[in-house]
Amino acid sequence: MKKLMTVLMMILMVGFLAACGEDDTTDSDEGNNEETNEESDATSGATQSVITDEASLLEAVSADGGWIVIFEEDMETSEELVLAPGENDGEAARKLALYTQDEDRNITDQFTLTAPMLTVQGENTRIQGGTFAGDVLVEANGFSIPDGTIDGNLTFASAEYEASADLSGGEVTGEVTVEGGDTADATSGATQSVITDEASLLEAVSADGGWIVIFEEDMETSEELVLAPGENDGEAARKLALYTQDEDRNITDQFTLTAPMLTVQGENTR
Asked: Which segments carry the region annotation Disordered (predicted)?
C-alpha cells in the first residue's frame, strides 16, 4: 500500500512540474512578443524615416515609411518618386523634412532632394524647409510648402486639390497648373502674386494678378491702387495677405501697405 501511494505521489509531482514549466515558457514567450511589438525602426511607418542613401529614400516614401521623412544631406535619385499616404497621431499626414533645426526649432541647414518627378498621394503632405528639384504632381487635399521650394512645375490633379493647397509659405519656380486646365503661374489670376517691389505690387492688384496677393514685408507706393476683381476656384474673390503664418496657420508676422488710395472693385475682397 505504501509503495502504491509513493508511486501515485511521484506521478502527481511530475505532472505538477510539467504544468509549471509550460506556464514559465508561456510567460517568457509573451514577454518576448511584447518586446518585439514595442520595437519600431526608422521605416516602420509609425514615426520617422531617416534618409541615408537611395534605398532608404525609396523605402521611406512608400507606405512602409515613417510619416515624416528626415533628410540630413542633399539627395538625388533617377527614380520617379511616389509619396504614399501616411498618418500621424491618427490624422492623415506626410512630411518631407528637408532641413535641420536647433532646440528652438530655428532652421539651421536646408537640403535639396532631386528627382524627375514626385507624385503626392496623401492628404496634408508638406515639402518643408528645403528644396525639391523636379516636377510635382499633387493627387490629394491639404498640400503645402512651408519654407519650402519646388524647383520645377507644380501640377494639381484637380481644382479641388489646388483650392485646398497652401503655397503661401514657399516658392514654386515653374508653372502651377491644374490637369486639363490653364497655366496658373504667380500672376495668372489663378493662384497668387508675391510682392517683391512696387512693380510687382502694381501688377498684382491688376486683373492679371493672383487672387491672393502675398506680402513678405512692408510696402509703400505713391500710386493710387485699384484692386481689380478676381476669382478663386470659380468664385469671385481677392485677398491682400499682409501677414505670414506658420504650418499651423498661426500668424507670425504682419505688414503694412501704404498708398494714397485703394479702390476695391471685386466682390468678396479681404
From this structure: 23-48
